[in-house]
Structure formats: structure tokens, C-alpha cells
Amino acid sequence: MTAVSEFDVGPLTWVKGEIDAALDRADKSLQQALAGAEGDLTQIKFGRTHLHQVHGALAIVGLDGVTQFTEALEGYLADLEQQQLVVDAGAVDLTRRGLQAIRHYLDDLLNGEPNQPLRLLPLYREVLQARGSERVNPTDLFFPNLEVRPPRRAAVALPPVELAQRLRAARGHFQRGLLTWFKGDRAGLNEMRAALEAIEATQDVPAARAFWWVALGFIAAVADGTAGADADIKQLCARIDAQIRRLIEGSRNFAERLMRDALYYVAVSDSADPAVSSVKASFQLDELLPSAQGEAGHATPAQEGILRRLRDHITAAEETWGKFCAGTAQALSIFRDQVTALAQGAEHLGHPDFNRLCGALLTTTAWLVEQPSRHSDSLSMEIATGILLASTALDNFEHLGPDFAHQVDVMTARLNGCVTGMPPETGAEVPGLDDMSRQAQERLLNSQVAKEIQSNLGQIEQVLDTFFRDVTRRGDLAGLEAPLKQVAGALAMLGQDAAV
């Protein structure tokens, strides 16, 4: 299993609500901290406590890269709390952006995005630099599956004495090549590679070979000139030399961080060398690297607050519209209030197409409120479809593409057609919107059926209550057969076999 392709989001869904609530509390504390005189350190502490709860939940579900990020952000809050850093607007903004990035990352995971903690690297680097770190290692957020084993090959077990001799000779070649390279001669890399090939050939157990196979791929990438030659890479080569020494001493264990570091440089290499390609393919390293888009396109913290409020209005609007269409006349005024709040919030969101959609819903609602008798089945479906389109847009606000503008064009034309008495035909011009129309119609039908069920249950309850108060009215029970059959039939239509 790889961290990318088979991450189980099930446990995350169980704790996502608690994580979001803790992130909201942390964000609120930070805003209150900034409002206090010279920064309210008590609110900073509260924010750090809530973030620590998030960190614990993420650790439980196994999101190692994200917990590394939350740990860094928690450390930054600790520095602010202890007055090692100044609590100002910049510090609060950085921390709030960090909280927002955590929320976005988890939402993306639940929406099917791959588990790529490196997407958090730009903000992670910013947090560590704010804490005074001059160098930030990308491998802090790089967590490949280390259980991968190298391709099978014929294994030859060597006698202990011969094995020790070969390993010592290989280390000598590796050190000589390393020194040559440090002096500026890249020919030393070829000698280092030959040394690692010799070491890898001595390992007869796949688990023991794994690190040396990866190290060979790493050196191949460096020798090919595609992994760079910065100080971190040279330090990594020195750490491999230390690992050879431990191997000579009889240890087959290796540090997990050393393995991850080597794999990272293989992952970012463009080398076509077979040694590099083999490691890349086996560990599926390309899947661990985010696209160049990164975290671009996500909502700002201000937009996040607006989106949350709009989702509440959408939920309430959908519920009240269903009640109105099912016959509850007084629900129309409540629906108008929710759509008005939705349209007002859309103006502050800064998305012109979404703003147009909400404006069209408000105009149509106002027209209906003037004369409720204008209500019709076609109007019911079009408004329900518009609400569903707005709801879907809010859920995918950060990924709205050009097709959304076209959907809004068609939706506003349909709503305007209901007002003018000339509803446009709903062809297959916009399949996504027509699918929403079908979903909206199903929701309206379900709402109406549910209302009928509730009405019948209320009637049944009243008769039963009367009977239990006066058992002489047993004859009234015979009248319950019809409403009970209606309830059963309605539940069957909804596919609720257990309830039937």
C-alpha cells in the first residue's frame, strides 16, 4: 500500500467534524488575540491548545506529513505565547493561513485528492523561517511507504569473513569517490556508485537490500546531474558512508529519515537511468509530488467565513422550499429571508457567476412572494435546481471551472423564463445541470412524500392517544388501516424497506 493511492479516508471522516470545530475555535482565539492590547497571550494559549487537539486527531488517523506541519505551527504559537516572537497582525495572519491550509488539505483528501503533504511545503517553510530556521528540508513532509522491497534477484550468501572484506573495500572506494567529488571532480560519483553496487550485491535478504537499492538510485540521480549538488545532498552522502560503517559492524538497520531523504531526491530527479526509474516506479514516487498548482485557488480566510454562513443559508433555503412546495404556505416568507441572506453574502464572496446565480434566485423569489398563486410545478423544479447548483458551487468553490459560468447562464435563463411566462426548454445542452434538475425533482418529491407520511403519522398518533386515554373507543382503531397502508406505500416508494 502507498500513502498516496490507498490512503483510507474512513477514519478521517469519523474525526473530521471534531477537527473542523477545533480549527474554528483556534481561529477565533487568534482573532481575539489580535484584538487585545499588544496581543492577548491567553488567547494565543487557547489557540495552541485547540491546534494540539487537531494534531492528536491527525496522528491517530496516520497523516504523518500533516502532523509535521501542525507540530511546526504549534511550535510557532508556543514562541508567540512565550513572547519569543511578537504577536502582531503578520503573526496572526500566518497562523490563520496555516489553520486554513490544514482544513483545505483534509477537505481535498475527502474529495479524492491524493495524500501529498509536500503541498504544504511553501507555508511550512514560511512558518519555520518565522521561527528563525534558515534552512527547511522538504523531506520533513515526504512520507513514502518504506515497506516496498526491491525486485527479486538471485541471492548469494557470502561467508562472514569474505563479506566483511568486500564491505570494507567498498567503503574505501565510496570514501575515495566522495572526497574526489567534494574537490570538484564529478568522476568521484562513478566510483561511489560502483561501491554501492558492490554493497547491494552482498545483501541476500530483500528487507536488508532495500536501503542500498534506494541509495544506489540516489547516487545514480546525483551522478546524472538531475538531483543537484547542494549541501544537503553532500551531507546525505556522508550519512550513507556512516551507514556503510554500521553495516560493516553488523547492523542491518537503517534510519527511516535517511531512507526518506534518499527517496525524495530520487523522486525529484529527471534522470532516465534504470536505477532511478526502478526505484521511482516501485515506490510510486511521482504520485507523492504535487502539481505545480500547489495550494493556489483556495479561498481566503475571509471567504472561508462567508462560505460557511452561505452553506447554512443554502441548507435552510432548501428545507423551507421543500416545505412550501409540500403545501406549507407560511414557509415562503422564511425561504425569501434565506435567499435574501444568500444573495447578500454572495456579493461579498467576489465570484461574479455565483453572485449572478443568487441574484436570479432572489429576483424569482421576490416575484413569487408578490403573488404566491404563481407557484407551479415547473417553478418548483427550477428554483430547487438553482438551489442545488448554488449548494454544489459552494462545496466546490475552489475548483469552479469555466463550465460553471455556462451553467449559471442556462439556470438564470430558466428562472427568468418562469417569471416571464416563457420557460426555456431543458435540453441536453448542459448535462451537469440537467442531472441537478433530476436530483432537485427527486428531493422535492421526497419532501412531499415525507410531508404526507408525517401527516398520516400524526393522524395515527392522535387516534391511538385517544384510544389509550379511553379504551372504550376501540372502534376508532379500524380507521387506522388506511393511513397505515398509505405510510407503508410511501416508505416503499422511497425505498425504505426496513421502515415498511
Explain how this protein is built.
The structure is a single chain. Helices cover 69% and strands 0% of the residues. The protein has 500 residues and is mainly α. The chain starts with 9 loop residues before the first helix and ends in a 7-residue tail after the last helix.
Contiguous low-pLDDT stretches (5 residues minimum) are 1-5
Category from helices, strands and their pairing: mainly alpha
Question: Number of helical segments?
Answer: 18
CA distance, first residue to last residue: 42 Å
Mean pLDDT: 85
Number of beta-strand segments: 0
Indicate the radius of gyration in whole angstroms. 32 Å
Helix content: 55-70%
- What is the succession of H and E elements? HHHHHHHHHHHHHHHHHH
Shape: elongated
Q: What composes the largest sheet? A: none
Strand content: under 5%
Write the layout of secondary structure elements.
Layout: H1 10-35, H2 41-61, H3 64-81, H4 89-110, H5 121-130, H6 160-182, H7 187-202, H8 206-223, H9 231-248, H10 256-267, H11 274-283, H12 301-325, H13 331-349, H14 352-370, H15 377-395, H16 402-420, H17 431-469, H18 481-493
Summarize it.
With 500 residues, this protein is an all-alpha fold.
Name its key features.
single chain; 500 residues; mainly alpha; 69% helix; elongated
